[in-house]
User: Fold these one by one.
Assistant:
Number 1:
Amino acid sequence: MIGTVCWLLLLAGGLGIELVARLGRTNAATLVRTCDLIAVRVFGRLMLLLFWAFVGVHLFTRYTLPGH
Amino acid sequence: MKRVVVLALAGVLYAWWASGVAPFTALAYVLVAVATAAFVVSYAMLGALSAQRSDVSRYYRTRSGDTRFKSWAPWLVALTCAVTLEIVGLALGGRSATVPTVSTMLDHLLIYHWSRGVLYFLWLGVGGWSVVRLARHVRSGDPR
């Protein structure tokens, strides 16, 4: 339960950072701008691509909940 | 614009079909592999995976603006918290009810076909949007 609450708080925190960044109230970068910064180098682009592919394989080819 | 709408519609259909395929089957792996290959090939054809294409690096540098450590530090903090929670969840066996991993959390969303389809479409959308965005830049030569 505590872990679930922590994940939800983290999600809310991420949405909060994105909102504040988009409103321009601080100099916090949006998630897209942060990813653009990572993508400046080829290695960064490759890492983002691998992460994206990993998410696809991990979420849509397997399942961990028993009984479903 | 019309092409983007057609691509989005194709994405919806693909996501709906693929999300209905049972996990751990060959078809499930093939469908993810086909989508991944399509994006990797498109991305590579745009020069994104070539170290020789300085215009692509310049494009991303321009897009990131004057992003400095102070700007992306909040994301680094969030990522560190997520990795810590994931490690704790894995240390507790991966399916702990007290501290679940992010996979276990998301698996609850993957029970239903519609929610699985939405997540599948979002996944395709993130990959497709990156390619479309870069393709627009390459075609127009606009640094933004």
Note: Chain B has one domain: 2-140.
Number 2:
Amino acid sequence: MLSNIGVALLLLVLILSFLIIYNSSLELKTSSQSIRKNIYQLSLFQITFTVLSFFTLIIGFINSDFSLINVYENSHTAKPLFYKIAGTWGNHEGSLLLWVNILVIFSYLFLIFNHTHNKKFRLYTLIFQNILILGFLFFLLLNSNPFNSIYPVPAEGLGLNPILQDPALAIHPPLLYVGFVGCSIYFSAAMASLLSSYAGKLFAQSIKTWVKISWCFQTLGIIVGSIWAYYELGWGGFWFWDPVENASLLPWFAITALMHSLIVLEKRNTLYSWVIILCLSTFILSVTGTFLVRSGILNSVHTFASDPSRGIYILSFLSFMIFSALIIFFTKYKKENYNFNLKSRETFILANNWFMVFFLVTVLIGMLYPIFLDVLTNVKISVGPPFFNIVIIPLAIPLMFLMAIGPKFSWIKSQNKFFYKILFLILGAIIINLFIFYFFGKYSLLSNLIFIAAIFLILYSLLDIKNIFNKKNKFKLPRVTSHLSFGFLVFFIGINYQFSLEEDFNLKVGEIKETNNYEINFEEIKIKENKNYKAVIGNFKLTNLKSNLVQYLNPEIRIYSNPETLTYEAAIKTRVTSDLYLTMSNVSRSDYYNIKFQKKPFMIWIWISALMISLGGFIQLILKKNEN
Amino acid sequence: MLTKRVKKRIIFLILILLLSILSVFFILNSLKKNILYFSSPTEIKQREDIPFGKAMRVGGMVKKGSITINQKNIQFTVTDFENEILISYSGSVPNLFAEGKGVVAEGKLSDKNFFIASRILAKHDENYMPPEIKEIIKKNAK
């Protein structure tokens, strides 16, 4: 039943997409100023049917309708309702349906909210967006249909991968998808802008809100994924430079560069071609990331079971996108005059772009090099985290200095009247750093420089915030919030990296281990039956030998029945100054349990500052809304 | 004669070019130092020039019944159904590490039969198998 409804809805969407493309191209030739009613109506039908098809799938998951293969493979009647719903996008087919939904929703919103802009430009955007919708819809129907049915209907489903049964991971894909797929709209808009010669300032105004929305969601999505990795994967870190994480970072660098250079285009009406390139590459990188992750080409700790045929389709569609983008870009390319003064804000924004592109290229090389080497020489390698750390971290130092002083420069040309302020703040940062260095521990020269740069950025931004409240100039608030939080993020990550404790050992029940001022007492083991899993809970008493503070930590080993899997749940005690992190595992079914104990300073502050970065973007969206 | 403006532009271009070459060189150089080679137990047995004491990755299946554990570390045998290697690891193992399942270990060879791992890689999906291991098994299962 549901299978037929779902497929019928998707076919309707398919037909509507064709109709929209057809009608829009007819409409291009008419001379009237506004777009005809019927295109709005078609779009409204399109969005309605798409969203309905998604709800159909959700209903299938809620009712555990195992006549759908997708539900059968990824759900189970014993699963809590929340994870039944989250299961909808917790798998390849369902997430692709979500992907199409976001494409359609953005297409519709762009159509109705940008009514002040040029008609031709809007129509071309609509056409390109619908070509994208068609491409992914065909992929969905031919290769990964979530509504495929199975007969005879199985009595019970196979269940959702237990590691995915987690609140953070339930919201992680939708956030990231809004971020990634949201880029599609300014991919289409960039193509439309080239074709309709609707360039410069007005173009910048038409896409800037969409860029900010997708930036906010991308940032948030990456952070939530990272938080999940921290408490679920049990190794206590939060960033691994893993290929899948890198894949999510590539579009983020591009979009961050875009967000900054878009300001130059809007205010100074220059850098148009560069903005177009960034618009195009952001979405292309998003799709590339998806392609690499879904096709199983990347060997990653996050990889899910994959299917090469998916890769081939995405790859051919991707090449089609890149080629048409290149052709349109080069046939329509116009020479621009760049006239930058060294001491102007646009120069600093270009510097930001240089850093972002450098990071992007670094991560791209680190990610693709193993693939090329494998194809060319059949040698299998992987690029370890040290590579990324060595190349990226030193460059964060000049980046943070520029992040602080760049926004101080005014457009076109400015005088340096704040030279002494910079000198004064650098001195302050050096003193604070010396204080940390002297009282808490020694670290390398590089780390010293990073701390100085981060503290400088923090101090500078704090002064900015003071100015904002004195002068009530709230429009600077978003930028300062994000830059300040970035400073804090680097600072806390640095502290965390320098002063973390980590200890691995094996213990039997009843044994006591002393390490780094902590006494760890493995008191007992309890077994608890839950709805969809059995938990072996360890009871650990931790005594801080210095302050005699006693804490109890209860890591778990969970045995899920469908599918049968073991997972290890870390016990994390979060405090203001540090996290205590304890995992226990048992692989050989012997008496020994494998214990990993970590003390991670300022963990919670890393999350808070990371979230604040994206908060900056959200503040801007709200301010802009009030302004209009 | 070049005008001042053209001169300025040429200097600017040369600077950018130098900067890009420098950064690409820097990236590739650090890349070279930080790659980890992946080998199967058979490759380790057969290759003459395998480096000892250099970080690398070994992958295969965890042999059934081979996991032992004591106060300090875990030991298990990794097999590609032709050759095997003993792996010693101290630390907690990731989710989904189990006998009869695929595993990738990162660490250093101490000799051709003994590998000291510093990290065991986790997989999210019980059906997932690293491509390298899939290939090994396909080759040896004939």
Note: Residues 4-33 of chain B form the longest helix (30 residues).
